[in-house]
Specification:
Layout: E1 3-9, E2 12-18, E3 23-28, E4 42-43, H1 48-61, H2 78-88, E5 96-97, H3 98-107, H4 116-124, E6 137-138, H5 151-160
Length: about 170
């Protein structure tokens, strides 16, 4: 059974999905990737995982680094899971490039080559935006590129974390 709730934020409505124990999806209103079959999900605003996630989001949107562990369950490929592990390790208020991620994957022996496009695909398909901070990934030329919710939303999230003066140029 999948459960659903929403969270109202300064960047729009955020939809949370859970299997009852773990957070499985977090979608920001306006993202390109849409949830499928949400009419089959059961509304439940009181799940413990939803309450913890909402507290995490409350803290985040106050401009403070959340110190709440959110149990996450990903239904993805091994490669994407490795990318998300790297994303989760990006410190609050800091940035990393797609190239940096590709280099880390190669160093870990996950890939033999630098696979920028595969990294970009995995980052863009992140099912748990904000908590798995794909918005902290930028182009090698320090430009804001490729955010599922749009560049303006990415910029707002980065500014909330104290990061300013990032170029919108590709």
């Amino acid at each position: 059974m999948n459960y659903i709730t929403t969270y109202k934020s300064q960047i729009g409505t955020i939809t949370l999905i859970s299997d009852g124990i773990s957070l499985t999806n977090l979608y920001i209103e306006g993202q390109r990737h849409k949830l499928k079959n949400i009419e089959n999900y059961q509304q439940n605003d009181n799940l413990e995982i939803f309450q913890k996630t909402k507290k995490w989001l409350d803290t985040y949107f106050k401009g403070i680094k959340p110190n709440i562990d959110i149990k996450i369950k990903l239904n993805t490929t091994k490669f994407s899971e490795e990318v998300y592990t790297i994303l989760k390790d990006i410190p609050y208020g800091e940035l990393i490039t797609y190239k940096d991620i590709a280099i880390k994957l190669k160093q870990k022996g996950i890939t033999k080559n630098l696979c920028y496009q595969a990294v970009g695909r995995a980052v863009s398909n992140n099912p748990i935006s904000i908590i798995i901070p794909c918005h902290r990934v930028i182009g090698s030329n320090n430009s804001l590129t490729g955010y599922n919710g749009g560049i303006e939303l990415k910029k707002k999230l980065l500014e909330l974390e104290g990061i300013k003066n990032i170029s919108n140029k590709k």
